[in-house]
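Good morning,

Both structures are done.
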Amino acid sequence: MKRRTLITAAVGAAVIGPVVGTVLGRLPAASAATIWQLRWAPEANVDGLAAFEGVEDDRANSHPAGQPHIFVEGNNYRFNMHLVDRDTLTDRQRQEVKGMHATGADLIVAEGETWRWTYSMFIPGSLKATTTFTHIMQMKMPGTDSLPILTTSLQRVNGVQKIQLHVFSGDVIVGRTDLVPLQNKWIDVEFEMTVGDGTKGAVRWVLRDGATTVIDVTRTGLDTFIDDRVRPKWGIYRSLGDTSGSLQDTYLLLTNMRAYKGVAPPPPVRYEAENATRSGGTVDTNHLNYSGTGFVNTENATGAWVQWTVNAAAAGAAGLTFRHANGTTTNRPMSLTVNGVLVASNLAFNPTANWDTWANVAVTTNLNAGSNAVRLTATTANGGPNLDYLDVQLGADQPPPPPPVAYEAENATIFQGAVASDHTGYYGTGFVNYDNVTGSYVQFTVSSAVAQTTTLTVRYANGTTTDRPMDIAVNGTTVRSGQSFPGTATWDSWELTMLPVALMAGSNTIRLTATTANGGPNLDRILIG
C-alpha cells in the first residue's frame, strides 16, 4: 500500500531554507568514510537516448511536426518545447526523460540509499520562470498518481525569476537564487540525495557558474520517499497557467551527466606490529591493553623503523591508523613513507599518560594495487613509541572525483586571434576565433597541485567541412602533432576532443597552435581532469 498518493503544495506558503546552507562534501548519511561508485556516465553522442529508462517525447502526439522534441545534439541532450505542445493533460506541457539505464539494466534508487548526480546545464533566456510551475528536474516515485518528491523549478517569486529546489512534503524550499544571471551559459549542477521516509531524508544542491559557487545548500530532516523507489526525470515540464507572459518556444540542454552511489567501505584490515619487519627493537608484552600477541618497543635511536606489507586489491585512497603508546612526556615523531615516497616527515606520536594507555594516529594516503610497503621511521634519538598495530581502511573517504577544472579560452594568451561571441552555445563570455594563418595559437596557464597524468579536454567548433588540425604542447614540449579538429556541422555546434597529458606540480602551460593556413577552430575552453 502506498504511504501517500497526494501532496498538497502551496508554493506561496513554502518553508524557505537558508540561501546558503552548510557547505558539505557529503550528506550526514554519508558522513562516515564513504566510497562513491560511478554507476551512470552516459555520453550523448555514444549512448543516445538509450541512457534513460524511458523518454516522454510528446506522449499525447500533439505536435508531430515538431518531433522529435528530445534528441542528441553534438554531445548534448536537447529538449525542445513549443507553445503548441500539449501533454495528456492539456493544461500543461511535458518533454522529459526518466530514469537511468546502464549495462543493460535500469538503475534503482532505493530507500536508505544516498546518491549524487552531477551534470552541466544550459538554460536559454527563452526558458523563463513562471507563476505556476516549470520543472527542469524531478525526483518521483514511478507512476502517475503522486506529485513529485522534489523538483528543480523555475519559479517567479514576487515577480523575480528564480531557480529553486523544492521538496514537496512539508512544502520546503531548500534554496533558491536568481535565474537570469545563470541563463545563456553553461552552469554545473551537483545534487545529492539521501532517500528517507519521514524525517530520514536529506538533500544537498549546488549550482556553479564556472569557478563561482552560486549556491550550496544542505537540508536534513526531510521526507524524500513515498513508496517503491525513486526515479529521476530531466527535461521541461510546465503549466500553461502562467500569468506573467513568460511562455514561449524554448529548449534545454544537458551534458556530462553522472550518477554516483554512496556505499560503505569494507571493514579495516589489521596488521599487527609484532608481525612487521623492523630495524631493531623488541616484541614485548610487559604493558597492558595491546592487541594480538604483543607490541613493538622501538629502538631508542634516530632511524629506527617498523615496516608493514599492506595489500590492496585496487589502487586508491586508504586510511592508515597507527595504534601507539608513549609513556613519556615528550613527543616521539616518526616519518611515514609508502613505497619509498614520503607521506609525512614528522608524524606526531604524543604522550599517552602511561605505557598502558593507547592512542590512534590517522593518516589518509594512496596505495598501489598489490603489495605496498608502509614504513614508520624515528626522527629523534628517543626512537619511536611502542607500536601495537596498523589498521588499513581501503577505499577510505572517496568522494566522487572532482569535476574537471575549466579554463576559458577568452582568458588565455592569444596570438593571432580574437575573442568573439557571435555564435551560440559557448561557456563563459565568449570564445577565441583563430586568425586564418599557420602558427596562430592560444596558450593556457594551468595549475596542478601534484605531478600527474590527467585528461585534457578541448571544446571547439568548426563550421567548415575541412579539418583544422593543431599541435598541442605542454610546457613547451609537443605532446600531439596535428591533432584533428574536424567539422562540427555548424559554428554553433560544439564538440570535445580528449587526450592524456602529463602535468608538473605547480604552473603549467598548454598551447594549441594551428598547423594550416585555415587557422584553428573556434576554441571555447579546455578542461583538466
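Second structure follows.
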Amino acid sequence: MSQDLLSASILIVDDNHTNCNLLRSHLLLAGFSHVMVATHGQAALDLLAERLPDLILLDVMMPDLDGFELTRRIRAAYPDRFIPIILVSALNEPQDRVRGIQAGANDFLSRPFDAQELLARIHSLLALKRIRDELDADRRRLALLNEVSRLLTAQLDYEALTHQIVTLALALTGAAKAVLIALDEEGRFSHKVIAYPHQPPRSASTIERRVLDEGLLGWVLCGRQAVVVEDTRRDPRWVELADDEEAASALAVPLLRGDKAVGALLATSPRVGAFGVEHLDLLLAVGSHAAIALENARLYEEARRQRARTEILLNQTGDPVIVADAEGRITRINPAARRTLDLDDATLGRFVEEVFGLGLADLLLRAKERHSAVSGGYTRRIPDSEPRTFHVSVSPIEGVGYLMVWQDITALKEGEQIRLRSEQAERERVLTALSRYMSPALIKRVLSDPHILRRRERREAYVLFADLRGFTRLTVEHAADDVMALLNDVFAEMMEIVYEHEGVVFDIAGDELMIGFNVPYDQPDAPQRTLATAIAMLRRFADLKAKWAQRGMQVGMGIGINHGPVVLGHVGGRDRMNYAMVGEAVTIAHRLVELAADGQIVATPSTLPTPLPAFEDITVRELPPQVVKGRAEPLTLLLIEVS
C-alpha cells in the first residue's frame, strides 16, 4: 500500500473492545499510524466534530446508536464531505447489506472477515477518497481563480485596482504583508502599494534603491522568475530595511505582460516556512491576471486623458464635434459630425434648437447657467436610417461659445436593453421558483414587491416542522411506487392547508415539511394561523393515515412549533435558487418535532396565541422542562394532542 494512503486517519467505532483491538491490530500491522477508536455512537460523533477521519470502520450492533442510524447521522451532518464508511458486522443477510447501503455506507463486511480483504477494501476506498478530494480541491481552486479574474478585470480605476491586487494577495496567501511594485512604460519604478490585514492599502512613490538593485524584488524583476523563500535570514537576496516589519519567509512573483515586466508582487510572513507551492500557484495566478488588468487600466486611463485633450481638436477626432457661439448658432462642424449626423454647410449659422430641437438647446442653457460642462442623451433620426443614440457633452468655452462632443452609444443602449430583458427573465424565473413555496395570495404580493428578490432580512417568525413517523421503515418494506404515492398524497394535502392559512413552505426534505408564518410579510395573527394550521394538518392526516393503513402502510405524523428571530433570503447559484429561512428558531423547532409523537404538537409557550382559541377534541398540558441540543438551559414546552 502506498505511503500516502498509510498516512490516512481511520476511525474504528465498536462497543466490543475485542473487536476494536482486533481491527486496530490489523491496521497497525498494515502500516496505518493514525487510528482512532470510539466505543459508542455519540463518542464517534464527538470525535467527528473535532476532526474528520479519512475512513470509518463501523460496527452495526451497538446499544445507543446502531451502525445504520449512525451512518445516516454522519451523512446528514457532513453532506459535502466524502468520508468512506465500511460497516463491519456479524450480520450477513442481503437485506442487512441493503440497509447499510441505503443508510449511506460505502461497503459492508461480514464477520468473520479476512484481514487481507478488509485491507484491500480500505485501500480501494482511500484511493477513491484521494481522487475525490483532489477533484474537489481543483474545483475550489478553479472557482477561486475565476473569482479573482472577475474581480480584477471588472476594475478599470488604476489606483483602486492596485489596492485590490494587494488585498487579494493577502487573502489568498495568509500573509502578514503584501507589496505591489509598479513599473512605468520604460520599466522604471513608478510607485508601490503596501497592505496589511484589516488595514486599507497605502501607496508610496519612493522605494529604497537597494530593494531593486540587490533585493529579492529586484531579482524577481530582473530574472522574470517567481520565488519562495522559506527563511529570509538564510537568503542573501533578502534586504532587510531598518523600518521594515519582521519577515521570516517570503513569496514573490513578477507581473508579466508577454515578455514585459509591469511590476512585481511580494508577500511576507513572520513565520519561517509559511509559504508553500500552493501559495506560489495562487500568487502566480493573481499576478497573471493582475498584469493584464493593470495594463488594461493604464490603457483606459491613457485613453481617457487622450480623449480629454483631443475633444477640442475638431478634425482629429472620430467623434462628431459641433461648435456653437454664445447665442447658440452653429459655427463649425467636424467631418465626423457631417458623416455621422448627416449635416452639411447649410447647417452653419442655424440655431442648435432649430436643427436638433429643444432637448439639445436645453443642454446649452444648463451649461451656460452652471459655467461648466453638462451632458445628456440624444437620439438622432435620419431618413432611411435606423435611429442612433448619442451621449452629448456640452462644454462652455470662453471666447468661443460651446463645444458639443457626440459619442455614439447605440450599441451600449442595445446592450442595456438586453441586460434589462435578462434581469426581467431572471425575476420571472425567481418568481416562478417562489410559487413552490407560497400561496397564490402571497405570490400576488411578491409581484408588487420587486425588492424581495434581493432582500436579506431578520424577522420574527413562527416555524412549524411536520415529520412523518415510521416512514423510514416503510421505505424499506414497501415498493418505491407506493412510498412515493404516500408522500405525494400527504404533502399535497398538507401544503393545501398551509396555503389556506397563507404560510410559506420553505423546505420538503424526505418525509419532513418546514413551514414559516409572519414571513416574508407581517401577519399580526401569525400565532393563530400557525396553531390552526398544525391542528388542521393533524386532523386531515388522520383521514390519510386510515386510508393508507388499509393498504398495509402504518404511518404517523408529529409537529413541532417554535417562535423567534430568523434570517430570510434567496440562496443558491445562477441556475438554482431557494428561498431560505435559517436561525436558532428554526433549529429549536426541528428539535421539538423530534419530541412529538403521532398526533402530537410540541410547542414553546410563546408560539401559541393568548388566550388559546377553543378547539374541539384538543388537550393541552405542560411538559417537564426539556434540554434540547444546542441550548444549555431547559425549555418550557407545551404538548397539544389532537383526538
